[in-house]
Amino acid sequence: MTDRQFTLSSGRKMGVTSVGEALAVRVVVMCHPMPGAGDFDPKPIVSRRHEVRILAFDRPGYGGSEPLRDGESAQVQARADDIAEFLMSEQMSRPLAGGPHFGAVGWGFGGAVALSLAARQPRLIARTAVVGLSRRAIENAQTQTLPEIIGRPPAPGPPAFGWDALGIDRDDPILKLPGVADRLDGMLADAAVQGTSGIETDLASVKDMSWAEELAELASPVTLIYGEDDRLTDSESGAWLRQRILQAKVARVAEARGLTIVNVWHRILERVAP
């Protein structure tokens, strides 16, 4: 569940969740997939051992974040700016002088937000890792409808987001690890507490690709990670991003599927929060 709400300069409230080590010096920004709320720690025991604090942010309409107001932008860049506003606020005790301080991780569509944040805020983000963000997945999302995502026509009450919406197979061996299934279910349940508001905003956001035009400005290191058996990606995944980002490297994880982020969470933290 969301820890707290941060009031943005627009007056809209954004849900913020902190997991991992509360007093850790190293801080990682986590951008969740579509659908999803910002309270998923891929591997809590690894996060604690790595001594990192993970800050996750609900996008509008998910979890503890209020829906967009009339006239507010649904662009990916606007979500990156929401996160940056929090990181530069008085609620963050660490000083910003002396260079970038944060790592950023994005899962699926959340990878677009993480990359936009790194491109727009070079003084904040030192390193970025993106898991499973592909042109193919985005193009598929651009044509998706609500019934396809929630498995039924919209109805009163919270939608029933399932693992399939994230490209997760029920026979994925990673689901046998303690707590993974419960944490996924919790993230998806939190994403649905405001009905379909969050997913509708995401579906509007994914149709605007202007965020990708800014990636040429991204000068900090980026790792693009893909599971070789992830059904939402293919062998060409990452190529279109690699062409746009100066310091991007592509890493492919053998025998990894929709939960690649859990497979290699330790390596991701080693990369973004050394």
Features:
8-stranded mixed sheet, 274 residues, alpha/beta, 10 helices, 29% helix, 18% strand
Descriptive notes:
The protein has an 8-stranded mixed β-sheet, with helices on both faces. 29% of the residues lie in helices and 18% in strands. It has 274 residues and is of the alpha/beta class. It has 10 helices and 8 strands. α8 links the parallel β7 (222-227) and β8 (248-253).
In angstroms, what is the radius of gyration?
Answer: 17 Å
How many beta-strand segments? 8
- Elements, N to C (H/E): EEEHEHEHEHHHHEHEHH
Largest sheet: 8 strands, mixed
Distance between the termini: 28 Å
Write the layout of secondary structure elements.
Elements: E1 4-7, E2 13-20, E3 26-31, H1 44-49, E4 52-57, H2 76-87, E5 102-107, H3 110-120, E6 125-131, H4 135-142, H5 146-150, H6 180-191, H7 197-205, E7 222-227, H8 239-242, E8 248-253, H9 260-263, H10 265-272
Parallel strand pairs: 3-4, 3-5, 5-6, 6-7, 7-8
Antiparallel strand pairs: 1-2, 2-4
Helix pairs in contact: 2-3
Give me a quick take on this structure.
With about 270 residues, the protein is α/β, with parallel strands linked by helices. The chain has 10 helices and 8 strands.
